[in-house]
Amino acid sequence: MDGLCPVCSAVEETEVNVIWDCGWARGVWLDGDIEECIEVVRNEVREWVSGVWQFLGENERLEFMMMCWAIWRARNELVFEGADVSPRGVLRRVEGLMVEMEQGRQHV
Question: What is the mean pLDDT of each run of 10 residues along the chain (108 residues)?
Fold first, then answer.
């Protein structure tokens, strides 16, 4: 292992880079609805989340966290299972999760 992201081989493999700087992950963020995330760049996950958090409302925060999780999961599927997951596929997952969350809220 050379320390580079196994998906894009262009950035160092750190928590922020694999969710944010990797070209593949960047495609997810650029196609998503949370533009504020594009502008906030930090070196540590905690800094990044804190920086983004201040710009987002409740639903956007939920979507942001789901996007982070979906990117991480899809990245692991790409790396460890050889799955071919597109940025659009990740966004469809997030949209589905948001629908499920809203349906769950209505039943509470």
Answer: 82 84 87 68 75 84 91 93 92 93 84
